Amino acid sequence: MAATIDDNGLVGINVRIWRYVAVLYPTPATNWRKFAFVLPVCGMNVMQFFYLLRMWGDLPAFILNLFFFAAIFNALMRTWLVIIKRHEFEAFLEQLHGLYQWIHECSGDEYSRAVLLQAEREAHRLAVCNLCASFLDIVGALVFTLFKEERVHPFGVALPLLDMSRSPVYEVAYLLQLPTPLLLSALYMPFVSVFAGFALFGRAMLRILVHKLSLIGGQGKDHRMLVDLISCIRFYIAVMGYVKNFNELVNLIVAVEAVIFGSIISTLLFCLNIITSPTQVISIVMYILTMLYVMYTYYNRANDLVIENSLVAQAVYNVPWYEGGIYFRKTLLVFLMQTQCPLEIRVGNVYPMTLAMFQSLLNASYSYFTMLRGVTNK
Predict the structure, then answer these.
(1) Mean per-residue pLDDT pooled into runs of 10, the chain (378 residues)
(2) What is the CB neighbour count within 10 angstroms for residue 92?
(3) Which long-range contacts (CB under 8 A, 24 or more apart) does 295-298 make?
(4) Nearest in space to 100 (alpha carbons), one of 19, 33, 200
């Protein structure tokens, strides 16, 4: 069993990263690290904006650099959200750790431990994969620019009244971008992995609850059945509180990201129609797949909560109510009515994060792409 939140396989890797850079759990001795971590990337994002202004007449180059600008801006937005809502995130992590320990101590049967272990392994594997893929992707961008004939930076940057392609400005700017694989990986991916870890733990708790409900009945004792049912109701209330706090933490950021990702995907699809370079085509396809992967990770994990909650309602319905007394039956009926309310993460507290919503976002992105293509073809 994990002794601290840093040892918890669900979020441990990402919490340790955020703790090291003082995004979470800062101390007087480490508080300066978050500014040294975030402010240089903020400066680079501003320089990217100036570069976009210079690329306004070159549409393919403008769209490609708009993607980089939006991706880094999104990574900064996630990190600043965690910094600003640090106390809420730390309280939620403590809630997760408390529920994790409670399940081990009070519901420590072999099935519950196996479900938690499976969720931990899945979250840990996802976090490692995300960090490695992000790091290698950015390293590739750094190395790729060295083989181009003209002088370009991995991430297009510019400053007013300054030629970034002349020596020694070009060399200095390139050297300053060398730490970006570490910085951007630590900015971009931990939030995705933490979101997945939160959702996986919620799914694990709902699976454990379904298992507990399946054990009610068959004892021939009304009192024993009532005690077990009340225990399940308390467990469900804890899950409801967990999902509610989870939703309050992330609903606004996922709403903003849905708009950003949908817009960028449609513009990248449009860019595929106006470029001829095979290298750029491969790059754009990779960028589109990366954004789709991040969005799918969000919506697939959130969709799992909706599915598992529906299974809870089925498990309550299948409890042998006829074996209990009148008070047991009334309690079970109220519980059944409560489980009809979906436990879900909402985009901006409006739309549920489900795979159906993910498909709707893809349809909207494709519609905007066809509209752009139709306008330019006229």
Answers:
(1) 77 90 90 90 89 80 83 88 91 90 76 89 90 82 73 80 80 83 84 91 92 80 83 91 91 88 85 76 81 89 91 90 86 89 86 89 86 70
(2) 19
(3) 295/257, 295/258, 295/261, 295/358, 295/361, 296/358, 297/126, 297/192, 297/195, 297/196, 298/192, 298/195, 298/254, 298/257, 298/353
(4) 200
Residue bearing tokens 């349809």: 363
Nearest-angstrom CA–CA distance, 316 and 212: 10
* 172-209: burial string, b at 16+ Cβ within 10 Å, e else: ebbeebeebbebbbbbbbbbbbbbbbbbbbbbbbbbbb
What angle do the packed helices 110-144 and 12-20 form, to 10 degrees? 50
| DSSP label at residue 28 | T
According to the model, what pLDDT value does residue 107 have? 61
> Which two structure tokens, joined as six digits, stand for 314?
């089925």
Question: Tokens representing 244?
Answer: 């509610």
Q: Distance between CA 296 and CA 299 in Å, rounded? A: 5
- Residue 203 has a pLDDT of 93
Amino acid, res. 41: V
Of 199, 229, 236, residue with least CA distance to 311: 236
Say what the pTM is. Answer: 0.90
The answer to whether the CB of 356 falls within 8 A of the CB of 254 is no
Structural contact between residues 252 and 348, judged by C-beta atoms closer than 8 angstroms: yes
